């Protein structure tokens, strides 16, 4: 099982292949935002990697980060937990002014992952 470490939250065993956004919420107990429901549109699921940043992106993540001019962050809805990772949860419900974290993301990456 891959280990997910979230600074300030701890280290957690995560089922291999689980979406990072879901692992953050369900396994690590992070109040992670995902305002578009995990569809690579809102970028509120962004995290900073401390270690284990995946080399590959989905095309949707790559295009959204470029469109928003974002660097140094990754979209947790577009990443699967297939190796050990350490991240900072930088986009949380607490302090966001939002009333909820967003619609529940599906179990599989959406839109269907096209790896680049
Ligand atoms: S981009 Fe919206 S939840 Fe990931």
State the CATH architecture: Roll
- Helices, by number, come to 2
**For the record, what is the CATH homologous superfamily label?**
Beta-grasp domain
Mean pLDDT: 98
Residues in β-strands, percent: 15-25%
Work out the number of β strands.
Answer: 7
Explain the overall architecture.
Helix content is 16%, strand content 22%. The model has no long low-confidence stretch (mean pLDDT 98). A five-stranded mixed beta sheet has the order 2-1-7-4-5, with helices on one face. A hairpin with a 3-residue loop joins strand 1 and strand 2. The protein has a single domain, classed as Ubiquitin-like (UB roll). It has 116 residues and is α+β, with helices and mostly antiparallel strands. The chain binds FE2/S2 (inorganic) cluster. FE2/S2 (inorganic) cluster binds next to loops. The site of FE2/S2 (inorganic) cluster has 13 residues, from loops.
